[in-house]
């Protein structure tokens, strides 16, 4: 049995000697030693420039133009290197919206993110779930001019054929530490969350299906070995999560690491950083410091170009092939945070900027086009702790749109409720990741600021009991507060994504965080006797379990995204052709001026004797939340500010 010698960071001097010392313990010291650097970008989401189109201001924490500078430096440090992308590239910023909805994408056109990536000589990439948001034809056209191949092993056409090539072998010439040349066959396989068939049902139904990530790996990895792969790198657009494998997991990287034959795992999808990242602490099989999953090297390079993932492999000759003898992992950031401010560590790569400059300029013009006015500020700084105007605007626009669409339908007499969530609420996005729009003109960029995803509107027909359970699932965003313990207690469950905190407008209710959550973060019922939702009423009367409602939501939620009771695809009664964002824009154009106001439809129960705390952005000090009293306590890590809720 060999011993892995694992270090966190590449040593700039003496690394060959150190590696050979380690290799002498394995019995491989006499053979040639090849150092291979594997680099990863992931979840770029059309962030090329260091610019926040929502705020219409520069942003040193994002942008492939900055990551490209890290790529250039990382290549200069290594004799042998490969660059891969891990998916989610063509959707996710107003630059992507501009291409999809204004400029268009026909065969032969070069998508701006692809133009940028083509300057960096990627070796291969895989598909992310957001690649399917605009349909298969758009995806094909968008990636058609990529100068690098794509692989995905678990997306399958209706006829049973792979959607794209499941794997490939890169034949590369590498240089060992003595200067000699060798042939190396690098196997590359890709994976996407199997849930794409739910999340983008309208685009994929009857055209594409998926298989479990681990099952796909077990099918294809032996083929890759038979084809001569010396090492295998998994480009897995899937995150890291613990628990027993049941099959069909969205975040399956840890299970994937158990597949024999895979040597290195590139992860993503969760928008976290690995190695490092407190989100992965205390998960059996995960070494947060060394950057390993069941002992195998892995990285997750943040999101929007924030980091470059690095896995450095020491390869030794074994027979006619090569074996991993040692490795190091790292996630390099494009910025530091100094005195609570983002400070750029690198500048932009000129070639990347030049490749996208025209589309960037056109996007700025596009997002600045006015559509209406707001009489009041619209922000999301307190959206996780109180009824919120930014969420209310979305809910109102959705209900307005559906009421018009269904006025002559068989459902016209059913009450319409509207579910919406605060998408920009800090969290992993950082202290500036909040909606903030001042009174005055509303532009297209503001529509994307209020509603960041390209979702379409869906309507589900459910019962009062299902409405209650939907809200119970949503209330999992709160940690359980213990009044007996007293003192300061964190209110927000940091592992619960804000986009799963649905508020349902049209009913009134309270949330009691002293109760245990009925559902875990994945939507599984874990505490059947717990009830956080209190005093649920409609028009002043208690909601009956058998009462019928229409709930306006989006295609992601209605199709099963987030595993919400009453929303599994079977309850959909209306599928709108329009984006939710377009419905909001139509609503504002129709009204000419809006003044969204939180109406107290929901509130938090605040127990005595407990200081419930939460973090938000620094600009929250400019506003007061509706229906709840808060006080600033002081600064929090990473540029956030801590507040407490006052009785």
From TrEMBL:
Gene3D superfamilies: 3.60.21.10, 5'-Nucleotidase, C-terminal domain. Keywords: Hydrolase, Metal-binding, Multifunctional enzyme, Nucleotide-binding, Signal. It catalyses: a ribonucleoside 3'-phosphate + H2O = a ribonucleoside + phosphate; a nucleoside 2',3'-cyclic phosphate + H2O = a nucleoside 3'-phosphate + H(+). The keyword Phosphoprotein does not apply. It comes from the Bacteria. It is found in: Cell envelope. Its main location: other. Residues 36-271 form the Calcineurin-like phosphoesterase domain. InterPro entries: 5'-Nucleotdase_C, 5'-Nucleotdase_C_sf, 5'-Nucleotdase_CS, 5_nucleotidase/apyrase, Calcineurin-like_PHP, CpdB_N, Metallo-depent_PP-like, TAT_signal. Belongs to the 5'-nucleotidase family. NCBIfam families: PRK09420.1 (NF006938). This is Bifunctional 2',3'-cyclic-nucleotide 2'-phosphodiesterase/3'-nucleotidase. It comes from Microvirga splendida.
């Amino acid at each position: 049995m060999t011993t892995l010698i694992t270090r966190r960071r590449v040593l700039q001097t003496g690394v060959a000697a150190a590696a050979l010392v380690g290799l002498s313990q394995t019995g491989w010291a006499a053979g040639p030693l090849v150092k291979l650097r594997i680099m990863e970008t992931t979840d770029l989401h059309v962030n090329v420039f260091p610019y926040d189109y929502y705020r219409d201001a520069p942003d040193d924490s994002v942008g492939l133009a900055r990551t490209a500078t890290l790529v250039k430096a990382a290549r200069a440090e290594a004799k042998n290197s490969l660059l891969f992308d891990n998916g989610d590239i063509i959707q996710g910023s107003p630059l992507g919206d501009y291409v999809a909805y204004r400029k268009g994408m026909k065969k032969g056109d070069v998508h701006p993110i692809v133009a940028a990536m083509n300057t960096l000589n990627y070796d291969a990439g895989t598909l992310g779930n957001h690649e399917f948001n605009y349909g298969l034809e758009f995806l094909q056209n968008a990636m058609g001019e990529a100068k690098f191949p794509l692989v995905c092993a678990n997306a399958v056409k209706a006829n049973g054929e792979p959607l794209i090539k499941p794997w490939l072998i890169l034949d590369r010439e590498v240089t060992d530490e003595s200067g000699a040349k060798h042939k190396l066959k690098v196997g590359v396989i890709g994976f996407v969350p199997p849930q794409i068939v739910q999340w983008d049902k309208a685009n994929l139904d009857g055209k594409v299906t998926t298989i479990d990530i681990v099952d796909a790996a077990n099918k294809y990895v032996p083929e890759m070995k038979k084809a001569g792969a010396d090492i295998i790198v998994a480009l897995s657009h899937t995150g890291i999560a613990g628990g027993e494998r049941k099959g069909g997991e969205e975040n399956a990287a840890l299970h994937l690491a158990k597949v024999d034959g895979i040597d290195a795992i590139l992860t993503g999808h969760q928008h976290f950083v690995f190695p490092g990242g407190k989100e992965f602490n205390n998960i059996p099989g995960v070494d947060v410091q060394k950057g390993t999953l069941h002992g195998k090297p892995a990285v997750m390079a943040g999101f929007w170009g924030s980091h470059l993932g690095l896995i450095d492999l020491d390869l030794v000759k074994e027979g006619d092939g090569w074996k991993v003898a040692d490795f190091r992992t790292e996630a390099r950031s494009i910025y530091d945070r100094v005195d609570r401010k983002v400070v750029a560590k690198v500048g932009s790569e000129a070639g990347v900027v030049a490749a996208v400059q025209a589309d960037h300029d056109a996007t700025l013009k596009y997002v600045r086009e006015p559509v209406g006015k707001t009489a009041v500020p619209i922000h999301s700084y307190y959206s996780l702790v109180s009824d919120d105007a930014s969420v209310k605007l979305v809910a109102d626009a959705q209900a307005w749109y559906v009421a018009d669409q269904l006025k002559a339908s068989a459902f016209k007499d059913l009450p319409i409720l509207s579910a919406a969530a605060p998408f920009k609420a800090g969290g992993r996005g950082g202290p500036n990741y909040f909606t903030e729009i001042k009174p005055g003109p509303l532009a297209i960029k503001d529509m994307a600021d209020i509603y960041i995803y390209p979702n379409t509107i869906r309507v589900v027909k459910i019962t009062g009991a299902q409405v209650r359970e939907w809200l119970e699932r949503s209330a999992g965003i709160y940690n359980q507060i213990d009044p007996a313990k007293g003192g300061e207690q964190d209110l927000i469950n940091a592992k619960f994504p804000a986009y799963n905190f649905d508020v349902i407008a049209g009913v009134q209710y309270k949330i009691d965080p002293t109760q245990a959550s009925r559902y875990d973060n994945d939507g599984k019922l874990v505490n059947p006797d717990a009830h956080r939702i209190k005093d649920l009423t409609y028009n002043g009367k208690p909601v009956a379990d058998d009462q019928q409602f229409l709930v306006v939501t989006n295609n992601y939620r209605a199709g099963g995204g987030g595993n919400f009771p009453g929303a599994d695809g079977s309850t959909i009664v209306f599928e709108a052709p329009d984006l939710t964002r377009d419905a909001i824009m139509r609503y504002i154009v129709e009204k000419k001026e809006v003044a969204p106001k939180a109406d107290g439809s929901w509130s938090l129960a605040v127990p005595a004797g407990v200081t419930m705390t939460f973090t938000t952005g620094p600009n929250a000090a400019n506003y007061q939340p509706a229906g709840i009293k808060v006080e600033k306590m002081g600064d929090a890590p990473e540029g956030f500010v801590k507040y407490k809720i006052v009785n």
